[in-house]
Amino acid sequence: xxxxxxxxxxxxAVVLMMCLFWYVISSSNNVIGKMVLNEFPFPMTVTLVxxxxxxxxxxxxFNLWRIRKYQEIPRSYYWRLIVPLAVGKLLASVTSHISxxxxxxxxxxxxxxxxxxxxxILTRLFFGEKQPTLVYLSLLPIITGVGIATVTEISFDxxxxxxxxxxxxxxxxxxxxxxxxxxxxxxxxxxxLHLLGKLSLFIFLPLWLYMDSFxxxxxxxxxxxxxxxxxxxxxxxxxxxxxxxxxxxVLSLVTPLTYAVASASKRIFVIAVSLLILGNPVTxxxxxxxxxxxxxxxxxxxxxxxTKGREPPTLPLSQTSHVKYAPLEQHHNRDPYYRGxxxxxxxxxxxxxxxxxxxxxxxxxxxxxxxxxxxxx
Length: 377
Prior knowledge:
With 377 residues, the protein is mainly α. It has helices at residues 2-39, 43-64, 75-102, 105-111, 115-127, 133-152, 158-185, 189-211, 213-218, 220-223, 227-253, 256-278, 284-309.
C-alpha cells in the first residue's frame, strides 16, 4: 500500500514538472517568435526554420531514445492522407506565424481557443457526426469571449484575425485526420510528427525560394549577420521542436480530460507571460473576453466528458472471434523495440500492431482516440 502511494505521488510530481516545462517552453517560444517577427518580418522564413528543426533534430534524437520506426506506408495511402496532412500542417504553420506577426500573442492565443468550434464543424462536415445539445451550448462562451476580445483589441488587424482563424482550422483538421493515420498505420506519434515535418519542408522549400528568399537575403539582419536575430531564429526553432516533444510526453502520462485542462491552463500561462514581457496594452474588457474564451474551452471539455459518459456501452466481442499471435522470436526482422504484433490486416492493407508499454519506445500508451490532441500546437 505504501509503495503504491509513493508511486502515485511520484507520478503526480512528474506530471506537474512536465507541465511546468511545457508552459515555460511554450510561452518562451511564443514570446521569442513575436520578437523575431518584430525585427525580422518574414513569417514564411520562421516557418522554414521550424520545419528544418523538426527534420534535423527528430531523426537522431528519436533513434537515440529508441522510438520504434514505422513500417513502409503504401503509396496510395501516402498520397491520399499523408501528403494532404503535410500540406495542412504547412498552411497552418505559415498562417499561425502571420497572425503572430500581425497581432499580439495574447489575442492570437485567444482566437486559437476556437479550436473546439472548428472541430465540431469539421467532424459534422466530413463524418456527419452530431454532438449533444450540451456540447453545442458549451461553444457559446468561446464564441462570445473571442468576439469581446476582437471588438476590444487595441492592436486589432484583420489579416491577423483571418490568419489565426485559418491556422486554428488547419490544426483542428490535422488533429482529426491524424487520428485516422495513427489508427490505420500504428505509426508512433512522434515519428508521424517527423514524417510530416520532412514532407512539409520538401513541399515548402521551392515556394520559400520563390516568395521569400531574395527579400530575406537583402534584409539588413542577414546582410550584416545580426547575431541577435539569427540567435532568436535558432532558439525559436529549437523551442518549437521541444514544445512538441514535451507536449506528447504530458499527453501520454495523463487522461484526455486532465490534458485538456492542462492545455487550457497553458494558454492562460502563455497569454499572461506575453502580456508581462511584451507589454502590449489591454483593457479590462479585453481581458474579460480572453478569460471567457478560455473558460469556454474548459466547459467544452467538461461537456464532452459528461455526454461521453451517457453513451451506451459497446457490446463485447464474441468469444468466437480469434486473433492469432505469433511469437516474437519467430520474426527476427521486426523492430527490436516493438513488443509484439498481430497477424492480421487492416482494411487498407497495412499491418496492424499492438501497443507496447514503453512510453518512448512503443507509443504513448494512451486510450484510443487521444493520441492526436497535441500533434500540432
